[in-house]
Specification:
This protein has nine helices and ten strands. By secondary structure, it is of the alpha/beta class. Helix 3 links the parallel strand 1 and strand 2 (114-119).
Length: 341
């Protein structure tokens, strides 16, 4: 599976740099890491395997890897003009929520105003979430809130920045109950929302159009694109996507992996073969375009122009007679054959 562009942006190089790429660029090679070029699109299981491979082979502890990912998010945040805005960080109790706690702690250390709102399910969080929560308990000025009912939803200031770390790539069923109500509450606010890894409620590898999903203004996703960020129906949820390189071990990519790939301008430049000086139209193949009908010659014309633009040496169209004049006047480079019927 391939995709022709980095949806929903025009810049095909977005997010392939070591710290993520700002966009748009005039130079399509800006921000490209010569060492780690990630165009693969991983499943949730493959991402977890890559995390684990990094933990075992770098080596690095899972909590330190979380710190590294959170630091990349904080680096992105401090580059925005949000220094004087209050931050509302909404956390689940999994590792995505652990990212949120770590991000908030790092922002507090930089002098930002931060409040934490933890969606409480009555069960302990993941080990890394609990470790980060304990660190916040040790900071006496941490503004911590636990949400157990809709009455505890906070009023969100218009000048606030929301950090969404409720649910991440491990989500496997639609949100419901208190979680869904909280997402609706966030979406009704006027504040920009920054979702970490994925907007909460978004499935990692399919359309989430029928789901309750955070309407993110920005999505900071880790290491590589996820299929859910490239599905057309998910466009209203994902906002501006930024891929952050969190330093997952590149040797993991040496393994035989089955996955879709994102076809972008960088990949095309890598496989492009410059044409020889004395090559000619007969060197580059002969394409036949069959299409069109009365009132529908436009599709055949567009396909013919695309074929010519792609580099076919010779292009012939087989079209109904009613389209002959249109084709010859609009695409004179192509040869036209007509079907009397």
């Amino acid at each position: 599976m391939t995709f022709g562009t980095s949806f929903p942006h025009d810049d095909p190089t977005i997010g392939i740099s070591p710290v993520g790429t700002s966009f748009p660029h005039d130079d399509p090679t800006i921000g490209i890491s010569p060492v780690l070029l990630i165009v693969q699109i991983f499943s949730a299981e493959q991402i977890r395997a890559w995390d684990q491979y990094t933990i075992e082979h770098e080596p690095v502890s899972s909590i330190d890897l979380m710190e590294r990912a959170s630091a990349k998010c904080v680096q992105w945040i401090v580059e925005r003009s949000w220094r004087d805005k209050p931050f509302y960080i909404f956390c689940g109790k999994g590792n995505n929520g652990g990212d949120g706690l770590a991000i908030g702690r790092m922002l507090m250390e930089k002098g930002y105003e931060v409040s934490f709102f933890i969606l409480e399910f009555g069960k302990p969080g993941s080990n890394d979430f609990q470790a980060n929560l304990q660190q916040l308990h040790n900071v006496f000025f941490a503004d911590l809130h636990f949400i157990q009912s809709e009455e505890q939803f906070p009023s969100i200031a218009k000048n606030a920045i929301i950090i969404d770390t409720l649910f991440g790539s491990g989500l496997n069923k639609p949100l419901e109950g208190l979680a869904a109500a909280l997402v609706h509450h966030l979406n009704e606010s006027a504040a920009p929302i920054v979702s970490i890894d994925l907007p909460s409620g978004l499935f990692i590898d399919q359309s989430s159009v029928e789901n309750t999903v955070v309407n993110a203004s920005f999505t900071l996703t880790f290491q590589c694109y996820k299929l859910g960020l490239l599905v057309q129906e998910n466009a209203p949820f994902i906002g501006e996507v930024q891929v952050l390189d969190i330093g997952l071990h590149p040797a993991f990519l040496d393994q035989p992996l089955r996955m879709p790939q994102l076809l972008d301008e960088v990949m095309i430049r890598m496989i492009h073969k410059p044409r020889k000086r004395f090559s000619h139209k007969g060197t580059f193949g002969h394409a036949l375009i069959i299409g069109g009908s009365y009132g529908k010659i436009g599709a055949a014309l567009l396909a013919t122009k695309a074929c010519l633009h792609s580099g076919a040496g010779l292009t012939t169209t087989l079209i109904p007679r009613c389209g002959y004049t249109i084709m010859q006047s609009s695409a004179p480079e192509a040869m036209a054959l007509v079907d009397e019927e």
